[in-house]
Amino acid sequence: MITAFTAGLLLITVSELGDKTFFIAVILAMHHSRRLVFTGVIAALAAMTILSVLLGQTVSLLPKAYIHYAEIVLFIAFGLKLLYDAKKMPAACDTEVVEEAEAAVKQADLQLPKRKSAWAIIVEAFILTFMAEWGDRTQIATIALAAANNPFGVTIGAILGHAICAAIAVIGGKMIAGRISERQLTFIGGCLFLVFGVVAAIEGR
């Protein structure tokens, strides 16, 4: 339980800072109530986490040997990919991620009335965040974690990690967005994935 909780918390916190969903929350919080944006964002991330854990539990029905090797391969592959991406990135904040987040918010705003109700803001934050998170590496990693670890620990740890990142985004995102080094975060995330891969390999012996 504690191991699964720690793994979920660390994985999500490091991976989500500076991610597309992070900047979506930052941009929305600059135009709307922070409380409403946080509510929509964390609801989407919690729903995605629960869905991922359920998928992970479904995968856990496969033979344990398959799950074990798949977990190792996934984490090591993600780790190497992130390290490669970090090497290619500029030292400053990745403007492409920010631009994608801005485009997503702008497109959603065009489809909604200018004067939005509280419910409309929450729904917008929920949908934008859920769609941005779908198929993301953190979702796949959460599925892998839940397939081989305590599902409750992974769920609580991952949701707490998402809540921390969402809170940082809506409260102080505007101040720190330009100071976030996507390269450093990606490098740390890559190292973390590699550590999980090595730990999974050792525990399976």
Question: Which descriptors apply to this entry?
Answer:
mainly alpha, 205 residues, globular, 9 helices
Helix content: over 70%
Q: Based on DSSP secondary structure assignment, what is the total number of beta strands? A: 0
| Unreliable parts | none
Shape: globular
Supply the number of helical segments.
9
- Give the biggest beta sheet: none
Q: What's the gyration radius in Å?
A: 17 Å
Structural class by SSE content: mainly alpha
What distance lies between the first and last C-alpha atoms, to the nearest angstrom?
20 Å
H and E order? HHHHHHHHH
Mean pLDDT: 81
Describe the structure.
- By secondary structure, this protein is an all-alpha fold.
- Helices cover 83% and strands 0% of the residues.
- It is built from nine helices and no strands.
- The longest helix is centred in the N-terminal third of the chain and has 26 residues.
- The relative contact order is 0.27.
Provide a short characterization of the protein structure.
By secondary structure, the protein is mainly α. Helix content is 83%, strand content 0%. It has nine helices and no strands.
Secondary-structure map:
Elements: H1 2-16, H2 20-31, H3 34-59, H4 64-88, H5 95-110, H6 118-133, H7 137-148, H8 151-176, H9 182-203
Helix pairs in contact: 1-7, 1-8, 1-9, 2-3, 2-5, 2-6, 2-8, 3-6, 3-7, 3-8, 4-7, 4-9, 7-8
